[in-house]
Write a structure and sequence with these properties.
Helix content: 40-55%
CATH superfamily of the largest domain: HUPs
CATH topology of the largest domain: Rossmann fold
Distance between the termini: 83 Å
Number of domains: 4
Number of helices: 19
Strand order of the largest sheet: 1-2-3
Number of strands: 12
CATH class of the largest domain: Alpha Beta
CATH architecture of the largest domain: 3-Layer(aba) Sandwich
Shape: elongated
Structural class: mainly alpha
Length: 467
């Protein structure tokens, strides 16, 4: 008998930005499915009509697309499946696994107040649980699950181990509200069952929910999925990651210039490990990822480690793909797009821009010599490097470059000769030359810049500072 194919899902609520914790959960589900030839599905849990917005749904789709977490099939809207959820609740009602509860909010509150005063459990025990339908009033009601009162529910969790919750700690949860709309707790189970979800990998803040949801599966005679509840992400101070720690929305990380491959690598390592491996490709992550590698403790978000991993991915990236990602970064951060000439220059320069740039913003900063137009505006350090003596030496260099063959070895030889003739070293002349070509004191190698800029632009920039 062959095992059924793996099907995972991510099911965010469209009530705000896409949190980095949701992104990591999506990544874990994506890696688990993709590494096993399975399916990864996307469901938008938009049953909260007051807080759900189209803008938030769009932010989720954009965040997933930017991270490169492709999903299979169409996006499922939970709200649009409300009739199916109600159908399941009514089936349980017909089988005596659920019941109509006519208790009002005031009555429920009075029950809890009395229980609190008597120092007993405030878990609501509905008087309608075993009522005769003949006694039902003509009044609004909710449909509640008839949960077991004795024994315990055990969650066999792949991360947390076996978690036992006493049934007397769980109330008869509402399945259908008085207006007939399904609750989130019911909708999740029905959707997961109908979508064929084999593995539910989600945050451990849903652990108690699993105990309640298992009761619906059991009542309906449905096979349980495999559960894996992963710890939350904490900030550097050991508290739940929030705005006070910095960026928490996925869109912010794109605008801050972190490459998607670096984010995937870093988020995979946040709470999961494969030996001592820190830097790895998507293919390796898919091959290695397993639920047994997920730790039980919350992980801490470390911006320094993120930048380090991202720098390695920028250095290893394909030039054309990196250029495309740079253009996405410019759009996300509200910067002007590249002109055709700038794009061409960036393509030619990528080989000397990628090293030691930890973010796409740093890479763009290194590319200033391509993106700037003549006459260059010199920064303070560049201005200082171009004193009278050094400008004089550059004016001697310019005619010697006029007819030189435009190759690194030749250019290095000419610059070294001019430096020696003026009683200085090539390294000393590199500062003024860099200032003339980039307008800055920090840039790629002067010879890389000369090769990328070409003869005409190099000579024009030298003439600008020596004329």
């Amino acid at each position: 008998m062959t095992a059924s194919p793996v099907v995972t899902r991510i099911a965010p609520s469209p009530t705000g930005y896409m949190h980095i914790g949701t992104a990591r959960t999506a990544l874990f589900n994506w890696l688990f499915a993709r590494g096993r030839g399975g399916k990864f599905l996307l469901r938008i849990e938009d049953t909260d009509r007051e807080r759900s917005t189209p803008e938030a749904t769009e932010a989720i789709l954009k965040g997933m697309t930017w991270l490169g977490l492709d999903w299979d099939g169409d996006v499922v809207s939970q709200f649009e499946r409300a009739d199916r959820h109600a159908e399941v609740a009514n089936e349980m009602l017909a089988k005596g696994m659920a019941y109509k509860c006519f208790s009002t909010q005031d009555e429920i509150q009075a029950f809890r107040d009395a229980a609190s005063a008597e120092k007993r459990s405030t878990l609501f025990l509905s008087p309608w649980r075993d009522a005769d339908p003949a006694d039902y009033p003509d009044a609004p009601y909710v449909v509640r699950l008839k949960a077991p009162r004795d024994g315990a529910t055990v969650i066999h969790d792949q991360v947390q181990g076996d978690v036992t919750i006493r049934n007397d700690q769980l109330d008869d949860m509402v399945l259908l509200r008085s207006d007939g709309t399904p609750t989130y707790m019911l909708a999740v189970v029905v959707d997961d069952y109908d979508m064929g979800i084999t593995h539910v990998i989600r945050g451990d803040d849903h652990l108690t929910n699993a105990a309640r949801q298992i009761q619906i599966y059991t009542n309906m005679g449905w096979d349980l999925p495999v559960y894996a509840h992963i710890p939350l992400i904490f900030g550097p101070d050991g508290k739940k990651l929030s705005k006070r720690h910095g960026a928490t929305g996925v869109d912010e990380y794109q605008a801050m210039g972190y490459p998607a491959a670096g984010m995937r690598n870093y988020l995979a390592r946040l709470g999961w490990a494969h030996g001592d491996d820190e830097f790895f490709t998507d293919a390796q992550a898919m091959e290695w990822f397993g639920l047994d590698g997920i730790g039980k403790s919350p992980s801490r978000f470390d911006f320094k480690k993120l930048a380090n991993i991202c720098g390695q991915h920028i250095a290893a990236a394909d030039d054309a793909a990196l250029l495309q990602e740079l253009e996405g970064y410019l759009a996300a951060s509200g910067q002007e797009p590249f002109t055709d000439a700038q794009r061409d220059g960036m393509s030619r320069a990528m080989y000397c821009l990628k090293d030691r740039a930890k973010t796409l913003g740093e890479l763009v900063e290194k590319a200033h010599f391509i993106l700037a137009e003549r006459p260059l505006e010199l920064d303070e350090k560049a201005e200082a490097a171009l004193d009278t003596v050094s400008r004089g030496i550059l004016s001697e260099l310019t005619p010697q470059l006029q007819n030189a063959s435009w190759e690194r070895e030749t250019l290095e030889g000419i610059v070294a000769q001019v430096a020696e003739a003026n009683g200085t070293k090539l390294g000393k002349l590199a500062g003024p030359l860099r200032a003339a070509l980039a307008g800055r004191a920090v840039s790629p190698s002067v010879f890389d810049m000369m090769l990328v800029l070409g003869r005409d632009e190099t000579l024009a920039r030298l003439n600008d500072v020596t004329a």
